[in-house]
Amino acid sequence: MRYRTLGRSGLSVSEIGYGAWGIGETSWVGATEDESVRALHRAIDLGVNFIDTARGYGESERIVGRVVRERAGDEVRVATKVQPKNGVWPPPFGLDPADAFPGEHIRTTLETSLRLSGLDHFDVLQFHVWSDDWVGRGDWLETIAALKQEGKIRLFGVSVNDHDPGNALALVRSGTVDSVQVIYNIFDQGPADALLPACEEHGVGVIVRVALDEGGLTGRITADTTFPEDDWRNRYFRGDRPAQVERRVAAITADLGIAPDGIAETALRFVLSSPAVSTVIPGMRTVRNVERNTAVSDGRLLGADQLAVLGKHRWQRNFYA
Question: What does the pLDDT look like over 191-203, one tens digit per residue?
């Protein structure tokens, strides 16, 4: 496993981190706690030291906390998220930050996360949504500073709204944030236009989520793919979207001259090829997924020719909508 620094914080994080949404046993159908625990332990065995969870991920914080406490001898960094008090995702421009992240709500939610996880602090506390309209407004920054002082959190970050990387530029340039979590993948290359360069310039760590497009960039989504009705991917990949994904992935593998089952590895290497990226957090619900994804951390990045080919495969769309 290779490690990178999370921005100016100096915090060393594994370049392959662990996205823990899928193990929460809510939105993703099929996760079991026993397998999730095995997968987390295997990830730590293989050098993963960064786990990303959230208060809104069902049982995820509790399961992550259990494993981290069981591995007390290993220095594992845990990031969690505070959901907006008003439940609005994403926040519309002009929304008062006091409606989404008042200081009291941030503190109360964090205390709940600490209690359920059994941890005494989180390495990164993130807002689960963000609006650049909030820079310099509200009491959230004062509360974050107090929580750092109290030792309950080390760093502050935000999870940038889906496919909207420009909506964190003012925050990054303000110097008040330690990290941003953003969707960045072969399809959505938007962060490379302005956000990633700004993060490099201002020393802000970059946590990449959805590197595999919720499964779209694994080569396993075809026109015939279906999901259980209560699995959130049933909505994400509704209608003819699986067929669209299959065609797009086939075009990528043909242009690169790789086998279809090589697209996931290529997708992770694409993300890691950006020097601005600190860590990528694919969801890993099984030991097999952990072993396949961590194997990509071998120092082999994509060459300029490959990146140029992939640059032609941008796909502007929002399946979350």
Answer: 999 999 999 999 9
